[in-house]
Amino acid sequence: MPVPASYNDITTQNDLRDHVGTVWYDRKFFVPRSWANKQRVWLRFGSVHYEAFVYVNGEMAVRHEMGHLPFEAEITNLVKYGEENRITVMCDNALIQTTVPQGKITEVSRDDGVAIVQTYTFDFFNYAGIHRSVHLYTTPLTYIEEMEITTDLAKDNNVGFVYYKVKANGTAANEAVNNLYVRVQLRNKDGAIVANETSNSDLKGVLEVQKVLPWWPYLMHPDPGYLYQLEIFLHGENNELLDVYRQKVGIRTLSWNNTSFMINGRPVYFRGFGRHEDSDIRGKGLDLALMTRDFNLLKWIGANAYRTSHYPYSEESMQFADENGIMIIDECPSVDTENFKQELLDKHKSSMEQLIHRDRNHPSVVMWSIANEPRTNQLNAGSYFQYVANHTRELDPSRPVTAAIAVSSNDDKAAKFLDVISFNRYNGWYSNPGRLDMITKR
């Protein structure tokens, strides 16, 4: 079975296309003997839908429950160096009332026994499998684990600021983790260094950029999607260089009020789509050729934004959006949410944590969407979405929180907790179908 791809449409077997439950992936791989020397080995998945159990040489490496989002595990002590290794992945696509998104599993009687049937209310196919790339990579013993970036502008957008915060990780036996500093520099598109500094031991600071070139959406500037490259050099004792990390950075500001959403102080009109990651044969599998075509079509039609309906899209698509100046309303996998329970709330909040951790450094991401068409008329919907919205703001106060509301404003209990109220209406489609003349009369 090819990876990355949904397994459903690869073969001609109907029972595999409509399969509900577990499937197993298995393959061998080789780890060079040189990787055993002063390095850590990691295994990273771009996404597996929905729940995954990963084994390396028969030992459990990691379990992850959430489609569309990445996960990884250190496997330094699980692999054999200079030898062949085996990786095994169990993938379970079953959706129940406490998964994000939700579904139901029922047993239906038939002539030859009982059939297991998966049902869900969302209107897209529940593709399954290893949907995005799988990477085996190494880091130094002490390495840059993550980096958080925020930006600001001043003096009529002529001066930019890049605030950075670095988190380093090291083994328990490596004392160098307590004696670290970072050297930071910012390069423009031509490779010239436009700002630099050396931090102290708290591994955070700010770069000031004169004559800055801000990140602008498509059609708002002759050079949209301008990106700098931030380079982080992690040093230990005796100025030893331990690790280097590079990150594309777009310098821009976001602000909003009761009438306008603004980028770099200028009001923005959103023109775009709700999309899906869906293609022939591959399903939701990563397809760079199709992605490139889609972005060409977006720009051809004059769009400047889209919502990742109704789940996080690939990391590669987020990079495309950064580079092309396409604004993203970044949506978690919560769709048609109902039956609001504590276990579901915990997983919903976890989906936002994982999404924000993955995408917070992308300048293209301008809003977080916490749900699509949830059943916000239900009794506990108000308190449920108040928790989710507040949790999202705590994770990232720099972007507004929204959700696509579908119930009547008289019945809705959640919209008042959002920064931006988005709503879906289908005049001429679900109501008054075929009557285009009714669209402007409701």
From TrEMBL:
It comes from Musca domestica (House fly). One of its GO terms (cellular component) is extracellular space. It holds the Pfam family Glyco_hydro_2_N. Plays an important role in the degradation of dermatan and keratan sulfates. It is an enzyme of class 3 (hydrolase). Residues 12-140 form the Glycosyl hydrolases family 2 sugar binding domain. The lineage of its organism: Eukaryota, Metazoa, Ecdysozoa, Arthropoda, Hexapoda. This is Beta-glucuronidase. It catalyses: a beta-D-glucuronoside + H2O = D-glucuronate + an alcohol. Residues 258-440 form the Glycoside hydrolase family 2 catalytic domain. InterPro entries: Beta-gal/glucu_dom_sf (IPR036156), Galactose-bd-like_sf (IPR008979), GH (IPR017853), Glyco_hydro_2 (IPR006101), Glyco_hydro_2_AS (IPR023232), Glyco_hydro_2_cat (IPR006103), Glyco_hydro_2_CS (IPR023230), Glyco_hydro_2_N (IPR006104). Keywords: Glycosidase, Hydrolase, Lysosome, Signal. Its EC number is 3.2.1.31.
